């Protein structure tokens, strides 16, 4: 465990806490894409299949449980909670995310570390996580004004993967066995998707103005 | 190869 990866995991956790805060504090999920949240729940469920069969560390197990529980709780809130679900932008959140699931699964069948059940699902979860943010970014562009907490949520989500890239660079130079090309390349693509968001987030921070993404 | 077995990253 190196500082970049720990910082990345903490930033990821912060992004989830910010989202939960937004939903709990405003009792609203406006500006949040349910499709992205469903994709994240699928990412965690397919990546942490070894939750009960393998044990790496207390930290690893606890974080996996937190990510699975929080992502399912957010999906539940947006689908079932009587007050929150009313503020869901159903007619704006129209990204056909089933294509993202299909594309990731097909790619996982072609590109994997070992042709084994868990490995295929692990690769699937890596590819899916890279593109899972797309419905959310599209929704932000469509919904025009973005409330602060939603902006911070997406920012921390992008920052977590950027820190993971530093972690992979660090491990590349220090850990001779390190060979996680699937995670590295996919992580680079994932972080690149945030590039323009980071730019507009920085501009809104510098001008102390509302975050606005061009349509 | 040890690394690819134990997926130690989240």
Automatic annotation (TrEMBL), chain A:
- Note the topology in the membrane: Multi-pass membrane protein
InterPro entries to which the protein is assigned, alphabetical: ER_ret_rcpt (IPR000133)
One MF annotation (Gene Ontology) recorded for this entry? ER retention sequence binding
Query: What subcellular locations does the record give?
Result: Endoplasmic reticulum membrane
Q: Which GO terms describe its cellular component?
A: endoplasmic reticulum membrane
| Any single GO BP term | vesicle-mediated transport
Which stretches are transmembrane?
A: 49-77, 98-115, 121-140, 152-173, 179-202
State the UniProt keywords alphabetically. Endoplasmic reticulum, ER-Golgi transport, Membrane, Protein transport, Receptor, Transmembrane, Transmembrane helix, Transport
Where is the major localization of this protein? endoplasmic reticulum
The source's domain of life comes to Eukaryota
Annotated PROSITE patterns: ER_LUMEN_RECEPTOR_1
* Family per similarity comment: Belongs to the ERD2 family.
What protein name does the entry list? Answer: ER lumen protein-retaining receptor A
Q: Which organism is it from?
A: Momordica charantia
Taxonomic placement: Eukaryota, Viridiplantae, Streptophyta, Embryophyta, Tracheophyta
